[in-house]
Design a protein that fits this description.
Largest sheet: none
Shape: globular
Order of helices and strands: HHHHHHHHHHHHHHH
Number of strands: 0
Distance between the termini: 30 Å
Radius of gyration: 22 Å
Number of helices: 15
Number of domains: 3
């Protein structure tokens, strides 16, 4: 059953999860056993609901695939932790990462009807990045022990399993280990309610109205101006739909005592493209910044293959956003979308460096508004590419 997609799903959440959690919280108890049980219940609902199985596939197969993935990733993490304790060569680390990424790579390259369904499940992209986060922590020595329950709950935590946000293991574990007195629970409930009503407004009102009244009609026409209209309408639909999903995920995370980080911060008001990626899908962009851009920059600087540090940064930006595109899928519109944003980032950085000495544009309300308008239009064109509608 698709999470946060219909009111029947919310009915299950309210009766099976929310009511018992509130009762325990009001009693001033944080029962970890209940959080684990709640996650298990909702995993069965989301991945093994009988009427939602794929055609020709047993309804339990996707859940079995998910649990197998989690077990394999845990085995890789524990094995690498044991290797690090024995001071294994650092050159082994890239191979460990490739091994961890193997299921995700297979889902991207294997056709869904010819082997892909064996390794694929909803949320594998998000879970793969969480698994790599743990491996990075082990590699850097910030994680020196890995308990089975901690790892599996982090990987399989149901509120964020299929649509993010992408949490970090060390941050997640701090929340998981922290006590939760009644006063703290009441604060979490207040925040959860705010996120829940935001999600209801975004997903079931604004996104639904935009889709039915604007996106569907404009998408049925061809020509230049309908394409322009589609770009703007789709951009708003995508924001309200995705931000709504994220708000639901954060709301139910807070309910269970995990303060999952926010994923959006008024992205369409960003004054430049760099600021946009600090406001849109924040957990993904920060993950890519930390684990792709920064690692590439450090690696290239050490080897000196590109002498100019500015060129290293630009190559890193292109690689980072290409990775972002491939993460979404191997279809050409995703790859072009990633490269498009990489080029925008490089162009913005080059202009900023040039303007720093040329002082052609100074910071004023007018130039900031102009930058916001330009960024918004560039972003909407990017979402047109992302939608695939342009390639039809």
């Amino acid at each position: 059953m698709a999470p946060y997609a219909d009111f029947f799903y919310f009915g299950i959440l309210l009766t099976a999860i929310v009511a018992p959690t509130i009762l325990l919280g009001l009693m001033g108890r944080k029962v970890k056993t209940w959080v684990v049980l709640a996650t298990a219940i909702m995993l069965v609902v989301q991945y093994a609901w009988p009427v939602n199985g794929r055609a020709g596939q047993p309804f339990w197969q996707e859940l079995a695939t998910l649990l197998s993935f989690a077990a394999i990733q845990f085995g890789i993490a524990r094995s690498y932790l044991a290797m690090r304790r024995r001071n294994c060569p650092k050159s082994w680390f890239p191979w460990v990462i490739l091994l961890s990424l193997a299921p995700l790579v297979l889902t991207k390259f294997l056709p869904a009807d010819n082997g892909g369904s064996i390794v694929a499940f909803v949320g594998i992209s998000y879970l793969s990045f969480r698994a790599i986060d743990v491996l990075m922590c082990i590699h850097e020595g910030t994680v020196t022990e890995l308990r089975t329950a901690d790892y599996l709950l982090f990987i399989l935590f149901f509120p964020t399993i299929s649509s993010g946000p992408i949490d970090r293991f060390r941050r997640f574990k701090l929340d998981w280990d922290a006590p939760r007195p009644r006063a703290e629970f009441l604060k979490d409930i207040n925040d959860a309610a705010a996120y829940l009503f935001t999600g209801l407004l975004y997903k079931f009102v604004l996104a639904a109205v935009i889709y039915d009244r604007l996106l569907t009609p404009v998408g049925s026409h061809s020509g230049f101006w309908p394409m322009v209209g589609y770009a703007y309408v789709y951009s708003f639909y995508l924001f309200f739909d995705f931000a709504g999903y994220s708000a639901f995920a954060i709301a139910f995370s807070y309910l269970l005592g995990i303060r999952t980080p926010a994923n959006f911060a008024m992205p369409f008001l960003a004054p430049d493209i760099q600021a946009f990626w600090n406001r849109w899908h924040i957990t993904l962009s920060h993950w890519l910044r930390d684990f792709v851009f920064m690692r590439f920059h450090l690696w290239m600087t050490k080897r000196g293959w590109i002498k100019n540090p500015v060129h290293v940064s630009h190559a890193g930006l292109l690689l980072t956003f290409f990775t972002m595109g491939v993460w979404h899928g191997l279809e050409r519109h995703y790859i072009v979308y990633g490269l498009y944003h990489g080029v925008l980032q490089v162009g913005h950085d080059r202009f900023k460096r040039w303007n720093k000495s040329a002082k052609w544009i100074t910071e004023t309300r007018f130039t900031r508004a102009l930058g916001t308008a330009l960024t918004f239009n560039c972003v909407c064109f990017g979402f047109l590419i992302f939608s695939g509608h342009w390639f039809k």
